[in-house]
Design brief:
With about 260 residues, this protein is of the alpha/beta class. It contains nine helices and seven strands; from the N terminus they run ααααβαβαββαβααββ. Helix content is about 40%, strand content about 15%. It has a seven-stranded mixed sheet with strand order 3-2-1-4-5-7-6. The N and C termini lie far apart (about 60 Å).
Length: about 260
């Protein structure tokens, strides 16, 4: 590599670190805002949606965010979410007793950080774990001292004997993988949510075998011992992401 190319690589890495720091700063500001917000405001979807937009969205060149495109960060760091969908999930959970939370699929940890900050306002004793197969420079440092939270590298089998009040499955999006995540961990939770239940790209991706959308439809058909709701709103009406929630009729206790 020539000295000029080497210098360019160094500069690009430096710029990426600066941009990552800016993304993390925006997240930290919102975590503080959630901590100080009135609980009634936190039960309003539009208020929560604005907080999510302030954090910023993962840079994605596929033109998936619709009107939320202007909240996209300059790098692949932030929330990989449609803000209204995540806001509706959060408000839905605000009326539930959630003292333990497992997320499968950390990525950079922004979704986990947001949900921890939000849920702990309604459940002060909340303990959360986020798990991934790989480490993607997560925001673990921002959560130290704020919440009882754990970042873990591992597989779903590590939690096969654990019971959680809330499980959010957002890992491998293939049909087999999401089925395994639910059967090993999710079905033992009081509330289990799934990301990308209404995503055309996930559904048609080679090797996914219908992916999360196919799994979600089968889950609703075959499991009568759960109640289901969906948050699939999109500013253009596109099939992008979507969050599905299954609430166990046998275990759920409403606050």
């Amino acid at each position: 590599m020539s000295s000029g190319n080497a210098a360019a690589v160094v500069i690009r890495k430096f710029r990426t670190r600066i941009q990552a720091a800016r993304c993390d700063y925006k997240l930290a500001v919102v975590l503080d805002r959630i901590a100080a917000a009135d609980l009634e405001d936190l039960r309003r979807v539009h208020f929560v949606e604005a907080l999510i937009q302030q954090i910023g969205l993962v840079n994605d060149k596929r033109n998936i965010y619709g009107n939320d495109e202007l909240y996209m960060n300059n790098i692949p760091r932030g929330l990989w979410q449609i803000p209204r969908q995540l806001a509706k999930l959060a408000v839905f959970l605000s009326s539930r007793k959630i003292e333990s939370f497992l997320e499968i699929g950390t990525y950079t940890g922004h979704t986990f950080a947001f949900l921890m900050a939000y849920l702990v306002r309604f459940n002060p004793t909340l303990f959360g774990i986020t798990m991934d197969l790989y480490k993607h420079n997560p925001v673990e440092h921002l959560l130290r001292g704020r919440f009882k939270a754990q970042f873990t590298i591992g597989r779903n089998q590590h939690f096969a004997t654990r019971r959680f009040d809330f499980c959010f499955i957002d890992g491998d999006h293939s049909f087999d993988a999401v089925s395994a995540d639910f059967n090993i961990v999710g079905r033992n939770s009081k509330i289990c949510a799934f990301h990308d239940i209404n995503d055309a790209i996930v559904e048609g991706w080679p090797g996914n075998d219908g992916g999360v959308p196919r799994f979600w439809q089968q889950l609703k058909t075959n499991h009568t011992d759960w109640d289901f709701c969906e948050f699939t709103c999109h500013s253009r009406g596109d099939r992008v992401m979507g969050i599905g929630v299954a609430v166990s009729k046998r275990q759920h206790v409403s606050r």
